[in-house]
Amino acid sequence: MKPTFLFYDYETFGTNLALDRPAQFAALRTDINFNPIGKPEIIYCCPPDDYLPQPEAVLITGITPQLTHSCGVNEAEFAKCIHKIFSVPNTCIIGYNNIRFDDEISRYLFYRNFYDPYSWGWENKNSRWDLLDVTRACCALRPDGIQWPKNNNGFPSFRLEHITKENHIFHDHAHDALSDVYATIALARLIKLKQPKLYNFFYTHRKKNQLKKLIKIPNMQILLYISGIFGNAKYNTTFITPLAWHPYNQNALIVYDLEKDVTPFLTLNSHKINSNLHTNDQSINRDAFHLPLKLIYINKCPIIAPANVLRVADAQRIKLDMPHYFSNFTKLKINPEILEKSILFYKKKQIFFYSENVDTQMYQSFFDNASRHIIHIIRHTAIEKLKTLNLTAYDHRIEKLLFRFRARNFAESLNASEKQDWLEYRRATFHPARIQAYIQKINMLYDMYQDNDAKKSLLKSLLNYTKEFISLLNTNHTHSHP
């Protein structure tokens, strides 16, 4: 099968990757030259009856829960449709900031609905890519031919709607999933047209096996690294030196950020470093940003390139003090104990913040083979027979996930006792204080947007939905939705 791109985007009811719910999915498949293949996919997802949308998200997207219930499907069907779209062989699944956001939404969606959260991104010659970091690289390294908007601070803005406007790309409804998909395709086409060598280099190096060829740890090398963690003021760019592979994660590369002076790091004690180093952030040690050590996950399409890709003129344009970085590299080479020290830090036990909520436990551990087998059985078992499965011998998460899966998507499959358990869970989750705070937020936003009829209409709809939601909590039976 010929390789294709699948450009996709979610609009969601909030920004919490594990707990908030998708509202809309849009995708369009193209060939490698961005010519559309088939028709676009648009699917709405109804929120379950144990969830209320974040009001701010509704204001941004314009999608109310009532809209999704009028034209959408439950989350089980939503996940099934998306997984089928993702599973076409030889597909590069791509978006704009998808690695950090949309792909995580997909993973949690599949986790809740008994699909493998990860395999869609690599099985059957599939891959992932993120145009946001490619766009950042283009701005820093090869800006010619593209207009680069500035934010209020005078630094480059990488908001999709800003870039499309500056380059006269049609983008009629920002934060509408399909509109964002079309805009992303147009931006990819523009980058490939104006900077084909840069585009092809990072397309080739989107996969970890190709990235590994750039990394030569024993030789103490300098590499260019572009990531949003460094900020637009620095054009998201730094130089790094790879030190070692993480002792427990083969996809994590320990690197030294050469912007940071080596001398203070040599004097730091292990307690000070470890108190900042170990966080529960799955993507990067953001809380440890002031430390020179970083983890780069090569399975997340990082933008890494040889140091000489940055031309002197471009280094001056983005105000990167190259002698400073190379001076730190020299210090690093004459202090080899930093390598041992770095590995030792990461060998210490990582601190994870355990949650009792099974919805948030995807990254707790991989499912073993037996559990993956029973998950496959669950997915192919008739809904009315799911309650008969004996799950006690498998991963403890599966039984809890299955009960929530049935309650959220197939309430009619619950017996009387299960319906009561679900109602009590919902009441405990949405206790009076939480409901009161939620309504207060809606009212506060309503006052804030007194002169905006469109936003007031959205907030009125959300308030009506909330009132119906509350009334169902006060009954002794369940409904499919408010």
**Count of helical stretches:** 19
- Straight-line N-to-C gap: 44 Å
What share of residues is helical? 40-55%
User: Briefly, what CATH class of the largest domain?
Assistant: Alpha Beta
What letter string, H or E per element, gives the SSE order?
A: EEEHHHEHEHHHHHEEEHHEEHHHHHHHH
| Strand residue content | 5-15%
Q: Could you name the CATH homologous superfamily of the largest domain? A: Ribonuclease H-like superfamily/Ribonuclease H
Low-confidence sequence ranges: 279-289, 477-482
How would you classify the helix and strand content by structural class?
alpha+beta
Strand order of the largest sheet: 3-2-1-4-5
Oligomer category: single chain
Domain module tally:
3
Radius of gyration (Å): 24 Å
Q: Specify the CATH architecture of the largest domain.
A: 2-Layer Sandwich
CATH topology group of the largest domain: Nucleotidyltransferase, domain 5
Largest sheet: 5 strands, mixed
Mean pLDDT: 92
The general outline is globular
Let me know the number of strands: 10
Domain ExoI C-terminal: 354-470
Catalytic activity: Exonucleolytic cleavage in the 3'- to 5'-direction to yield nucleoside 5'-phosphates
Domain ExoI SH3-like: 196-350
Binding site for substrate: 11, 159
